[in-house]
Amino acid sequence: MSESQKISLATAWLDGCSGCHMSFLDLDQRLIELAEKVNVVYSPIVDTKELPAEVDVGILEGAVSTEEDLSKARLFRERCKFLISLGDCAVSGNVPSMRNTFNLDEVFDRAFVENVQAKPGRPTESLPTLLKTVVPIHHAVHVDLFVQGCPPSADTIWYVLTELMAGRTPDPTTVTRFGA
Ligand code: SF4
Q1: pLDDT (mean) for 39-44
Q2: d(CA 73, CA 63)
Q3: How many Å lie between the centroid of ligand 1 and the Cα of residue 178?
Q4: Residues 6+ away with beta carbon under 8 Å from 166
Q5: pLDDT by residue (tens digit) across 121-170?
Q6: How far does the centroid of ligand 1 lie from the alpha carbon of residue 139, in Å?
Q7: 19 CB within 6 A, ligand 1
Q8: Is 150 in the pocket of ligand 1 (CB under 6 A)?
Q9: Which among 13, 8, 177 is positioned nearest to 88, based on CA atoms?
């Protein structure tokens, strides 16, 4: 199959632990089979730094916690024909949304002052601007498919991708669940 005939795939992680991407890598030898049909055009696991203008399938891990996450989610929605919300953080907010019960001052103090022994204090630069509330991806942009799991297993990701490659709409609820 030529490069132009392959399905283009982009992935990114927002506020997540990267565990969902690790699950993707757990496809192991199936990655070789995948590479015959799918071209990974943008992802933390490839070198490309620019999201192409048109992508067939986009996968987002993690919740939307910062202005940067929000911009990335919007860019993926704009450029990806089919957008997948991968993992419980993306689908429900999960762990990152636990900060929603506190105000931002409490969150910053907990992270950078109370729990720090060496030089406690809030950094004044290089911190992404936090949104007041963490939201799942579909609260920020339209999502075409939800894949639950923390993380979704490699088998689940394989099922989703192979169904899409076969031109079918997968039903992830048949193979995974929240917390799986
Ligand atoms: Fe990590 Fe689980 Fe969130 Fe995936 S769903 S980013 S594995 S905490």
Answers
A1: 96
A2: 10
A3: 11
A4: none
A5: 988 888 889 999 999 999 999 999 999 999 999 999 999 999 999 999 99
A6: 18
A7: yes
A8: yes
A9: 177
